[in-house]
Specification:
Helix content is about 50%, strand content about 20%. It is α/β, with parallel strands linked by helices and about 280 residues long. Strand 8, helix 11 and strand 9 form a beta-alpha-beta unit. Bound molecules: ligand C2E and calcium ion (CA) (3 copies). It comes from Faecalicatena faecalis. This is EAL domain-containing protein.
């Protein structure tokens, strides 16, 4: 979809008598345009950064990590991914960004063949899967950096799966066959459909932090998380719990049998240099 047309369309649809509505839409449109500009420049000038959030593997003591995009505006202030990722997806820029992340991750892993960090996961949007060359492109990148496919994991949300389930199943099984592992991201948000999840080749499920309301201490939240962990284990999947912010949560999840925890308690996302220094 043409980006400019999209903005105009929005403004045109608004009731003409409602000046405030139109103003709000125009302001939003201007801001989106600005973010898009920042993104375009940042790609050209290679100013996007990839940060890494370590994930603690409770049993083995090993760690893995999730790669997260970081963008600063012209003044050097961070633009949150929740702001720029949707614009990148809408405008098609997410493609460029995904390749930047993949390349950065592979480059970093190649430098540390013996690291305790066995794998790093990247987030992928719907657009990447529409690309028929996706599998080849990822495998080529891994090969170029002398990496086995098990060092890279791909996180997808249910939203991506539900877009076209038959197609996604096919793509994911093919890639999985080539050795690339998939994680189901943000489980517990949106339309969590267990039946659909069963049909995809996930090796790991990430429970969203929104399931941890008043946790521990809230019996409902505790029972829900406990049941989900048992369920996914019985399906042969590892369970990561996201958004762990304190020791009480970490301890309780360990007792419930969670395999891994990710959150500020273990580590915030780190710039590459810090992650490399302390974890790789
Ligand atoms: P996500 O995939 O669920 O990533 C985890 C988010 O939770 C990150 O937000 C991380 O900073 C945050 N987080 C981690 N631990 C805690 C905690 O203990 N408490 C709280 N409150 N938050 C925690 P971030 O980096 O702002 O990214 C937001 C979202 O943007 C990501 O959510 C992901 O959906 C998207 N995103 C980030 N990088 C990429 C990318 O390279 N490609 C795509 N397609 N999406 C990305
Ligand atoms: Ca690099
Ligand atoms: Ca993720
Ligand atoms: Ca998540």
């Amino acid at each position: 979809m043409d980006y400019v047309e999209y903005g105009i369309q929005k403004a045109k649809d608004s009731p003409s008598h409602d000046v405030h509505f139109t103003e709000t839409v125009m302001r939003e449109y201007e801001e989106e345009k600005k973010i898009l500009e920042i993104m375009q420049q940042s790609v050209e000038q290679r100013r996007f950064r990839v940060w890494y959030q370590p994930v603690s593997h409770l049993e083995s003591g090993f760690a893995s990590a999730e790669a997260l995009l970081r963008l600063n505006d012209y003044e050097g202030n961070p633009v949150p991914p929740s702001r720029f990722i949707p614009i990148a997806e809408e405008s098609g820029m997410i493609d460029d960004l995904s390749w930047i992340v993949l390349e950065e991750v592979c480059e970093l892993l190649e430098k540390h063949p013996e690291s305790q960090v066995k794998s790093i996961s990247i987030n992928m949007s719907m657009q990447q899967f529409a690309d028929a060359g996706l599998e080849k492109r990822i495998l080529d990148c891994l090969k170029r950096h002398h990496l086995t496919p098990d060092r890279l994991k791909i996180e997808v949300t249910e939203r991506v799966l539900l877009h076209d389930m038959a197609y996604m199943k096919n793509v994911m099984y093919n890639m999985n066959h080539a050795g690339i592992g998939f994680y189901l991201d943000d489980f517990g948000t949106g339309y969590s459909n267990l039946a659909s999840v069963l049909e995809f080749p996930f090796e790991c499920v990430k429970l969203d932090k929104s399931l941890l309301i008043g946790f521990p201490g809230n019996p409902d939240s505790e029972m829900l998380v406990k049941t989900l962990i048992e369920l996914f284990h019985s399906m042969g999947e590892k369970v990561v719990v996201e958004g762990i912010e304190d020791a009480a949560q970490a301890e309780f999840l360990k007792a419930l049998g969670a395999d891994r925890i990710q959150g500020y308690y273990y580590s915030k996302p780190l710039p590459e240099e810090a992650f490399e220094k302390y974890y790789l």
